[in-house]
Amino acid sequence: xxxxxxxxxxxxxxxxxxxxxxxxxxxxxxxxxxxxxxxxxxxxxxxxxxxxxxxxxxxxxxxxxxxxxxxxxxxxxxxxxxxxxxxxxxxxxxxxxxxxxxxxxxxxxxxxxxxxxxxxxxxxxxxxxxxxxxxxxxxxxxxxxxxxxxxxxxxxxxxxxxxxxxxxxxxxxxxxxxxxxxxxxxxxxxxxxxxxxxxxxxxxxxxxxxxxxxxxxxxxxxxxxxxxxxxxxxxxxxxxxxxxxxxxxxxxxxxxxxxxxxxxxxxxxxxx
Length: 272
What we know:
The chain is an alpha/beta fold. It folds into 2 domains: about 130 residues, 3-Layer(aba) Sandwich (Rossmann fold), CATH 3.40.50.1000; about 100 residues, Rossmann fold (3-Layer(aba) Sandwich). It is about 35% helix and about 20% strand. It has 9 helices and 15 strands. The strands form 4 sheets. The chain has a 6-stranded parallel sheet, with helices on both faces. The chain has a 5-stranded parallel sheet with strand order 7-6-8-9-12, with helices on both faces. The radius of gyration is 19 Å and the shape is elongated.
């Protein structure tokens, strides 16, 4: 796909959330209208988030409060993939969790056993998400466990995530980078741009990857991962003067512009 007219050939859309559907506490312009129009046209819509603090149930609830109805199958969260991925790779092992109690819970449900920082030597894996309680003792315990041979996994490698206009919080990738620097071992990630999250999102849409658009604001995760998965890539970038990276098929300022272009390109019967 090289121009807006090719939007008519897309049969499903996968949307990132932070910076694409919402920014901080508010929807981006046109987000709700875009999702409604695509659904009314019979196109598949899935939300794919690199969130490393909450699962799809919380994201569904937040979408609903902002005016976009969603059920759990509409949301693919990297957070929700962690338990199955660790169990598939290592089995039900002791794990050191650098993250929230929700992350520890999802690992317990997968059969893993979270250990305390003073038991880090027993951990077979270190799992990193966003951790508001991150501390030097936790960094030390995680780095020593990884250096001692524990598997090292991060939900994503995003250095930061938006929490409002021109505001951000340190992301999972920032914490993982600190542990990697101290231990000398790089982490394995599950979220975008890695393939697992894209694979699940494509399966939820039920169409071939080439007929599905990945819409997101991050070139490093959304665009790179979408292109690698064989999807059409649509970049949300509020600065029209930003050069378009080679992984981007179409760049728009916000969901409102994407809706306008889609309506202009779509068959007559779905423009309304």
